[in-house]
Amino acid sequence: MLSTRLLPPRGARVWIPDCVQVWRAAEITRDYEEGDAVLHLCLEDGSMLAYPIESQLPPLCNPECLSGKDDLVALSYLHEPAVLHSLRVRFLEANAIYTYCGIILVAINPYKPLPIYEEEVIYAYSGREMGDMDPHIFALAEEAYKQMVRFGKNQSLIISGESGAGKTASAKYAMRYFTAVGGCLGDSSMEEKVLASSPVMEAFGNAKTTRNDNSSRFGKYIEIGFSQARVTGATIKTYLLEKSRVTFQARAERNYHIFYQLCASAALSELQGLGLRGAETFHYTCQGRCTAGTDDAADLDSTRHAFSLLGVPEADQLELFSILAAILHLGDIAIRGRDRHGDGCFVESADEALGQFCTLLGIEEAQVTRWLCHRKLVTAGETYLKLLSRQQALDSRDALAKHMYGQVFKWMVSRVNRALRSPEGHHTSIGILDIYGFEMFEFNSFEQFCINYANEKLQQLFNLHVFKLEQEDYVTEEIPWVFVDFCDNQPCIELIEGRLGILDLLNEECKMPQGSDGSWAQKLYQTHLGSSHFQKPKRPMDAFIVCHFAGKVEYQCSGFVEKNRDTIPEELVGLLRASKSALLAELFLEDGDGAVSLQSRRSSGPRLPGRPSRRSLPSSQRSKKSISSQFRASLNRLMEMLGSTMPHYVRCIKPNDGKLPFVFDSRRVVEQLRACGVLETIRISAAGYPSRWTYQEFFDRYRALVSREELVGADVKQSCSLALGRLLQDPSKYQCGKSKVFFRAGQVAYLEELRYRRLRAACTLLQRHLRGWLARRRFGRVRAAVLCLQRHARGLLARRLAAMLRRSRAAVVLQKTLRMVLARRSYLRTRRAAVTIQAFARGMFARRLYQQMVRHQKAVVIQAAVRGWLARSRYARLRGAVLYLQCCYRRARARRELQCLRAEARSVEHYKQLHKGMEIKVMQLQCRLDEQVGAAACFGTSPCARPRWSARGSRGPTSEPCQVPGDDTASSWVCTPQQGACCVSLAVIMTARGPGQARQGTPARLGDSGSPGARRLLASQLQEEKQQHEEEVEGLHLDIRSLKQLSQQQAALIQDLQRHQGQEGLQHHVVRLKEENWVRVREQGSDSSPHPIVSCSIPLGNYRPQSSPGALPELPAFLLFLCLRHADHCRDEPRARSLLDAAINAIKRVMKKHSDDFEVVALWLANTCQLLNCLRQYGQDEGNTARQSAHRLQHLDLQSAGRSLGALAVQLYQQLIRTAEKRLKPMI
Known about the structure:
GO terms for molecular function: actin filament binding; ATP binding; microfilament motor activity. By secondary structure, the chain is α+β, with helices and mostly antiparallel strands. About 55% of the residues lie in helices and about 10% in strands. It contains 37 helices and 25 strands. The strands form eight sheets. A seven-stranded mixed beta sheet has the order 5-6-20-7-16-10-11, with helices on both faces. Helix 12 (about 445-475) packs parallel to helix 20 (about 625-645). The chain is elongated, with a radius of gyration of 56 Å. The relative contact order is 0.06. Mean pLDDT is about 80; it is low at about 1-5, about 590-620, about 940-1010, about 1060-1065 and about 1085-1100.
């Protein structure tokens, strides 16, 4: 933490506590002054925070240059958030799992195989100094090996961490390094033996837990011996095997690996007689209900191969496997109670598991049945047999199984040590301690207490070692040493192992005949309740709390006394000693018996029963050490051994509980850092001078801060001292040693800030001068270029003006003519587009109207009925009144008409004389109109026949001529597609005139009447005739122009036909073949023989209906569909799909090339719609008649092609609309 004397400026970054990320970075937004109650911060997500300041300011962040340093001690600010942040950055961003922290190597489990342990990497680290390469377990192993060779002192690697943190893997990698670098002396197989000990130890001592799939359930110390820097042998010492796992496993956990390996290999011929089966059928292996995540059968092969390398014969291996199988069968022995009260129990003689157990071990079933259910009690002068309850018998059975496995594990370790032992001994050694880390669970029992006790002892050794190294570093550099207070856990160790401590009271309680967990807990409360490291939980239960260095742990007293006693049924052990199995008898040798080889035991045969010896006496007659006493003695020996070596520490960290690769859980990592002593190392280093630089490193880094006066020749030390005296005016902030300069916490960050300011000022000065020179140089070049450009531009503009004046007159004439042509062409295109759009729009409106009429049909019927009834009612009411009004009105009108008729009768002859000339003019106009109509009919005839489409536009064309209604003189005539407009115009004109209109003599009839009404009627008719005549004359002029265009096209057609004489009649031939193909399909139906289809190749880019007279606009669509029908008949679906894809791509290319041609877009839109219509009509059964369904496509599924054609049709329609808009906009 920072003192308030060092006030952080605005913009500085600090760490604040966070409930999720433990520590969170924030930036100071306002200058802090001493006495302020809050600190204004801006978090990384942009939110503002007013952080309350209680006693100290939040810790400062390190500079960016120190982020991700490979040694945490090199950080300027040494505190918990800085350590956590550096580890997170290295683990997540750089994928670096190793980091130095002073003398500690922090290893984070990546939960993913990494290519950093190959043989090339081993030799890359060999012979290198510790700081030359990235942090690695090989670098720490090389440091230990180098110190052992250089100083001749024993070394040790202390590897600790939680279960699943990677301790076992780190120990194996260290062993690989020592055997690879050290080699072997005399025995070339010693390296293989040392490495072969790992799979054997893992098979018998490792198991799957909820935290780790290969968790070591014991502590081991592997001492590798060296002579002349070569490996000569090794020794393995084990501590506190978890024997309770043999008889009980929690959910999602497994027993030891060796049991599952045997069950998975039960089909082997050499294991047939062991009675093995699936692991899920044995009581001792099915409690966890956990499926195997590894190949157990392959692991057994590796274990047996390792046994062979270690010199264990095949016979001993099979005998060992039979004992392990007997343990599995022992767990399946069914013990039943005699009554409901549970006063007695028995074992059925026909129990299959009992028979297998006794057969494998060579003991009598009756004796086993007896001593499983009875207990021998020896008094001063008599011996009693006590009948056990069912639960007591089950406990006795489980105790025997645990004791048997414990003895098997000891024998296995002794055989491994025998194989690794060197006859000539060793001069020096390197020990690897793979021990359990600090454990704190919801339920903590005797095993967790012993584990945490061992970690307390190791932490004490670690603190003393770190303190000693700090003192040596200061003495070497001749820096005044000031005693640094550190957290000493000696009071906690005294609480556990001191006089009348927890272990003494536990051993005393175990000696009591009626000792129990409850009475032991009461003794603890009475003795240690006043201790600062001992607490009593608030809950009323037998438990106690010990304040360890890593935190408070609550232990439940249940099972402590029984586990410490480790009571085993001596009668059953005596039976096992008298077994026919030589290996089993060797496992249970007493302390007084000499070592007897298996070969001699086998040759001597089974042991004969003799007089009772000490082995048959109960345990009360012998003194036996408790488990805690044995563990304390072995732990003290371990501490003495480690104290005599040079320790090197590896702290394994578990980044998350989900075993996910490269996932960093800050809360879990902080808990482990606090528990493994890393933060204590940081605190001890931070109490003195944590940042240490050599003079050359300091001079190279901060050369910019050294002035000219301070550069004294080549003496780097004196230059650095002068610069530090000027930069850090307080001498207590640094110390100059012999080869290094020591800084207090935060001073490196201050120097970094000064260096940043100096470099920034220098960069600003350089940038200012450089930018000025560049600007002046650029201005000179630009000015010269501008003058040159102006000169040339003015001349060019003058010449352009003269040319423009000369061409302006000609341009006006050309523009006039061109605009006229463009306007005419645009009008024609727009007219055609408008007609097409109107057709589609009217069709759409008609369909909408039809749908609306259908929806409102019932409403219309109801409305019609109601309105009819209302109309009839109203009509009935008004009819009488209307009749009366009509009568009155008609009578008055009749009188007025009579008067008018009398007046007109007098002057009718006069009107006839006046209008006689007018009747003659009317007759002349009528004759001229008849002549013009006849001439138009003559001009409308054409020798080319135009196909006429039937009422169903999608069914194909017909060749019937188009009849134009008119007079008798208008004969039947046929028009081409270009003459369509003329035909329509003439038909409208002829139809507008009623039959015999010119022959009715209208003026004669009108002339019969000389009334004023007749004159007005005649004038109106004359005006209408005049207007009609003008319209017809204008239409005739348009028709004449169209006929001229037709004549030109006919001439071009005649020339084209002359060029293609060899291909005359091609179109008629195609049409004939099409009709014949339709006839054959209708007649033959689903005939299997394929019919030939004439294939024609039409270049889509150049196809026009005008280029082929008489050609159908939809001809390409019909030809493509005929090809698809032929492919369907041949059942060639790939050809059909490729044909459709090629056609679609060709249409797209044509549209891309002729996107602005209205005729081309309309042509291919019609073809696409026609082809889509044919596919929908003949590609599915829905909505078709029986006759149509008979001709549908039978073997092709073209739904995807139909969707593609539909999308293409939509694109073509949109392109048509855009083309029409382009042509209509100028005219609008």
